[in-house]
Amino acid sequence: MVVMVRDMGPLMTAILLAGRSGSSFAAEIGTMKVNEELNALKTFGLDPIPFLVVPRILAGVFVTPLLTFYSILMGVIGGVIVMLGLGFTLPLILHQLASSVHLNDLGAGISKSAVFGVIVSAVGCWHGLRTQQGPSAVGLSTTRAVVTSLLLIIVADAVFSAISFLLK
Amino acid sequence: MNAPDNIAISVKDLTVGYGDNVILQNVNFQVRRGEVFVILGASGSGKSTLLKAMIGLYPPLSGEVWIEGGNLVAAQEKERLALLRKFGVMYQSGALFGSLTVLENVRLPLDEFSNLPDPLKEVAALARLKLVGLGAAADKMPGELSGGMQKRAAIARAMALDPRILFLDEPSAGLDPITSAGIDLLITSLHHFGFTFVIVSHELPSIYSIADRVVMLGSGAKGIIAAGKPAELRDGATDPWVRRFFNRQPDPGHSLEPS
């Protein structure tokens, strides 16, 4: 259960988010670039960064922890159901859960997920803005956004684990 | 620079390129206020690059672009924003924002830069759409419009902040002759309202129909190879390539026989 709260919940949510939203950000902004919509913004004197990137990064920061909390909740409920299926009683499971999982575990998982949210949205937007011209460019940006996000999420998770180990 | 009153745009010694790859070198011309000025040339001659350098999207390697008395290349942030207000741009693809309705597209610059109350912004945006004949399409999404309608909507959006200069990148490209003639008619009627147009095109029927003056870019020349009225260039150009271009004739060495 601790692993679900501290690691698996945030990590799984971030991976799903990279595949679903990071790729979508890259595709949306990449298509806008190919269609010259970014140039249109620039000639109005509007900077695409505050206009397109900042709202998406803020969305990543605020929504990823909520999704992670939901993911952890579903993971724990799933675990409880499996334990019940194995013949353990509900009071025993809840007692075990309360004694092994602490609030700071949840805090660590949720705060980690906010960083994952920044990574997924920033990388998606960055690859969208770097989209080149041509019919395959948007697809290429989308793939790169997902691959880069996954790599950085794993690296960030390793850094969090190292920090957590050093602080113990 | 003290430009004469009748000069809207002045391009001086403009050199544009990417790194070591120089595309246009020492380009000089002026666009008079209220004229329809067409930049034309072969594919790859740098027409769109020149347009993008003129509107400040590509920083030139050297040279100046003066718009209504202000140097866009050297302008600092505040002056640059003021200069950007003086012109509108229609991109080749229309570049309408796909997530906004046509009316919201035209309203966007007003929302960002105008102090008008909201109901007046709506009225102003709708007036621009009616001017280009798209009043009935205000609530449609860009994806629901035909190519010609998208270009007209893009012209309406370019006029949102009331500029006096409009840059149009290939307004007739990819359109059928009737729709293309409709765009020409729209440009001609807006021209009568006093707009100055800078148009990139290589659609000869459109050029003959709307252009007051043209400059032609040569693909190997990295600059202007001819300038003047389109009919004069068609009939009296000394450069054989220019004559062939205006008379739609292939290169002399061009053959359909297998080599």
Set down the secondary structure blueprint.
The complex is a heterodimer of chains A (168) and B (259).
Chain A lengths: L1 H33 L2 H7 L4 H38 L4 H11 L2 H27 L7 H31 L1
Chain B lengths: L6 E12 L2 E12 L3 E6 L5 H8 L7 E6 L2 E2 L5 H8 L2 E4 L11 H12 L4 H14 L15 H12 L6 E5 L7 H16 L3 E5 L3 H7 L2 E6 L4 E6 L1 H7 L3 H7 L13
Helix pairs in contact in B: 3-4, 3-5, 4-5, 8-9
Description:
The complex is a heterodimer of chains A (168) and B (259). The mean pLDDT of chain A is 93. Chain A contains six helices and no strands. Chain A has one domain. The relative contact order of chain A is 0.20. With 168 residues, chain A is mostly helical. Chain A is 88% helix and 0% strand. In chain A, helix 3 crosses helix 5 (103-129). Chain A has helices at residues 2-34, 37-43, 48-85, 90-100, 103-129, 137-167. Chain B is an alpha/beta fold and 259 residues long. Chain B folds into two domains: 1-86 and 163-250, 3-Layer(aba) Sandwich (Rossmann fold); 93-160, no CATH class. Chain B has helices at 47-54, 77-84, 102-113, 118-131, 147-158, 177-192, 204-210, 230-236, 240-246; strands spanning 7-18, 21-32, 36-41, 62-67, 70-71, 87-90, 165-169, 196-200, 213-218, 223-228. In chain B, the strands form two sheets. In chain B, strands 6-7-8-3-9-10 form a six-stranded mixed sheet, with helices on both faces. A four-stranded antiparallel sheet of chain B has the order 2-1-4-5, covered by helices on one side. In chain B, helix 6 links the parallel strand 7 (165-169) and strand 8. Chain B is globular and about 60 Å long. The model of chain B has no long low-confidence stretch (mean pLDDT 89). The interface between A and B is medium-sized, with 12 and 25 residues.
Descriptive tags:
heterodimer, A: 168 residues, mainly alpha, 6 helices, B: 259 residues, alpha/beta, Rossmann fold, 2 domains, 6-stranded mixed beta sheet, 4-stranded antiparallel beta sheet, 10 strands, 35% helix, 25% strand
